[in-house]
Amino acid sequence: MKSIKSIIGILTALVFLVAFTSCDNNMNRSNNEKSEVEMKMEQAQKEFEEEKKEFKEEVNDAIEDFNDQIDMYQREMKAEGKELDAETQQTLDNLKEQRDELQEEIDEFGDETNENWNEFKAKVNMQMEKFRRNVKDFFTPDQQENK
């Protein structure tokens, strides 16, 4: 009788030991899976931040190119003793306004999140392409001859 009780006690202890070890292994596996998910989320966030940085640089480059072209254009006009007519000045003012709007969008850029990033990027891309087209049109040789 004592040996049956001791066998039952040993078996009960073994069952608890196996159950505890199994739970511990499941917890470790769960922690590893959680760490893997966290790593993937961190990687996705890094990629998102890098994409935002590159996009901001692209827009800033377009703005800087325009500023350089305007500076050169104004120096040439001054060197030749020419002044802008009212229509040309209005066109130039419109380009500067578009530049300022783009700059404002980029300055507010840091607030964008993953959810509305694609919408924001598409909107700014459209603005930037319109701006680049208008700048190109302004500085084409045919346009310059008429001024």
Q: Give the count of helical stretches.
A: 4
Largest sheet: none
> Regarding quaternary structure, how should these chains be classified?
single chain
Quick check: average pLDDT? Answer: 81
Q: How do the helices and strands follow one another from N- to C-terminus?
A: HHHH
Question: End-to-end span in angstroms?
Answer: 115 Å
Query: Low-confidence stretches at least 5 residues in length (pLDDT < 50)?
Result: none
- Could you tell me the strand content as a percent range? under 5%
Helix content: over 70%
Gyration radius (Cα, Å) is 33 Å
**Number of strand segments:** 0
Shape category: rod-shaped
Structural class: mainly alpha
Record the SSE blueprint:
Elements: H1 2-79, H2 86-107, H3 114-139, H4 141-145
Helix pairs in contact: 1-2, 1-3, 2-3
Task: Quickly list its features.
single chain, mainly alpha, rod-shaped
